[in-house]
Amino acid sequence: MLVLLLHAVVLGLPSAWAEEACTRTCPAACACSSTESGCSVRCDRAGLLRVPAEFPCEAASIDLDRNGLRFLGERAFGTLPSLRRLSLRHNNLSFITPGAFKGLPRLAELRLAHNGELRYLHARTFAALSRLRRLDLASCRLFTVPERLLAELPALRELAAFDNLFRRVPGALRGLANLTHAHLERSRIEAVASSSLQGLRRLRSLSLQANRVRAVHAGAFRDCGALEHLLLNDNLLAELPAEAFQGLRRLRTLNLGGNALGLVGRAWFADLAELELLYLDRNSIAFVEEGAFQNLSGLLALHLNGNHLTVLAWAAFQPGFFLGRLFLFRNPWRCDCRLEWLRDWMESSGRVADVPCASPGSVAGLDLSQVAFARTSDGLCVDPEELNFTASSPGPSPEPAATTVSRFSSLLSKLLAPRAPAEEVANTTEGTLNTSLSDSLLSGGVVVLGHSTWFLLGSGLLLIVVFVLRMD
């Protein structure tokens, strides 16, 4: 028992020593505590205008977010051999002296986001950070990144540089052999050139969404064979070269939504056998080339909603068989025999819904699932429009013998009754509504009669009077 007690005391001594060491030299405006990951120093929202002169030597994490720091001098943080995470977000940094981060040999994560006055970084800013894995430069209003800036970071895995003012993909990315994630969204990038992403052989995720990309050059991603997620949505792409995504055999997500694409090319997705999610929504697509999706046998979802599609041929999927979910709403679909295969698939698979018909007029407003296709004697499909056009309407029934008064009353009713719309024979959900003269008068409606109608009405009344007098 005594041995166990002594063992517990011995094990507890390092923890107590660590807590005392962490708090002994804690800056006055900060809070320091010992955690499982090491000594944590929190100085966020402390109103600091300069970096504290001293930190605990054992510090593993320092948080200086939301202060008023404007300048980082050389060795701004002294020597902190255990520091792995440093956050300086939401300050007013306008200049960082080259060598400001010297003395931090184990730093793995550096956050500089939301320093809108920074705008420029010296090529030697991150010198000596050979173990840095994550760098956050978001919302710094940077116009460019010096070519050699990131070359000092051989271990860099993740780069967040969104919400900046780049007009091209920063050349500093080229050759970063260990980079796996790059976030470059919401900037002003206009093109992805054939040399923009050279050497990024381990890149798995690339976000270029919400930029101004008008062109993706052929072979732009040829070095990115490990890429799994590519986001190009909400740009200005009107066309793509056939080899735009050549070599992306591991790609699982491709987002091209919110562009200006007018068609889907057959060769675009030829190499994307592993693709699971394809977004083509919110474009101007009016045509899908035959075989465009033929290699996408593993696709889980295809988004074609919000385009100008009137027809989608089954040939776009052959010879493969698309088994995923298909999103087709907000398109002006023409529900004729060319979409019969889609209606049958909707019924059998349940993986597509909400396909509203815009034409022909006989089915406009219906969902494709409600459309009935007839067959000829030869088994050929008949379009709904042809059904209504060829359907024979019943001829007039023979008029029974009647007196002059009853005949005149019938004629008068025909003259005064409004013309009813042509009755639709097939695929209609409502019958025609005929309104009589008496209904119009009772409901307060106004009946307008032409000169010829008034003449016939007067003549008819005169004939009735003469007839009654003769009867008497």
From TrEMBL:
Keyword ATP-binding on entry: no
Domain LRRCT: 331-382
Phylogenetic placement of the source organism: Eukaryota, Metazoa, Chordata, Craniata, Vertebrata
Example GO biological process: visual perception
Protein name: Nyctalopin
Compartments where located: Secreted, Extracellular space, Extracellular matrix
Family membership: Belongs to the small leucine-rich proteoglycan (SLRP) family. SLRP class IV subfamily.
Lineage top rank: taxon: Eukaryota
Membrane-crossing residue ranges in chain numbering: 441-469
Pfam family, any one: LRR_8
Alphabetical UniProt keywords: Extracellular matrix, Glycoprotein, Leucine-rich repeat, Membrane, Proteoglycan, Repeat, Secreted, Sensory transduction, Signal, Transmembrane, Transmembrane helix, Vision
Gene3D superfamilies, per the entry: Ribonuclease Inhibitor (3.80.10.10)
Organism whose genome encodes this protein: Panthera pardus
GO CC terms: plasma membrane
Signal peptide start-end: 1-18
